[in-house]
Design brief:
This protein is an alpha+beta fold. It is built from 3 helices and 4 strands, in the order E-E-H-H-H-E-E. It has a two-stranded antiparallel ribbon with strand order 1-2. A hairpin with a 2-residue loop joins strand 1 and strand 2. The longest helix is centred in the N-terminal third of the chain and has 12 residues.
Amino acid sequence: MHRRRRVEEGAMQVHRRRPRGLRAAVIEVLEDVKEPLSPKEIWEEVSRRKLHTSQGKTPEATVSAMLYRRSHEFQRVGRGRFILIAASSGAA
């Protein structure tokens, strides 16, 4: 089990959020937003929240490929828009 790094700030201990895997980050975004998003919109939200980082040139293409490959977890509900299938939200 991974432990979070703690940073002392005065009398309080602050937990730093560790970057997570892309799949977990996408699941978190889709759970929170609760509306269909395109791979580009998903990546923009993942990046904005600093849930995952990428050094690639087209991270939204990586998100798109993952969404299409994992059709048992993500459902396409319109042209290039995806939602999370409820059963996958518990498995991270």
